[in-house]
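1st attempt posting a full record on here, be nice pls
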Amino acid sequence: MADVNRGNRPLSPHLTIYRPQLTSMTSILTRITGNALLVASLLMVWWFLAAAISPGAFAIADWVITSLLGDLVMLGSVWALWYHLLAGVRHLIWDNALMLDIPTAEKLGWACVGGSFLLTVATVFLV
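the predicted structure (as tokens):
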């Protein structure tokens, strides 16, 4: 039978009134950085293949990667690498059923975000 009261049911809360939590945002960011690392890896593979193919192909790939946009992509890749690593360590901690309470989980989330920025700055300026 058809539900005649279908339009009278209450609606679920939507994202506009939902407050995102740090743990959910860091989880989403981990997935995004994983995909960004894949794209950066493909760019580096293209650079290596171009170097093996011909000087002309290498000149094009080198120009793209060393351009301002390429530099920004590589800088973002360094940050994504550090963030993804720290988020993986956080998940290893959680896999051992440690630091699962909400205040500590939030501190770990902020440690991933802040630590990734600090390690990126250290990598760029010290290496």
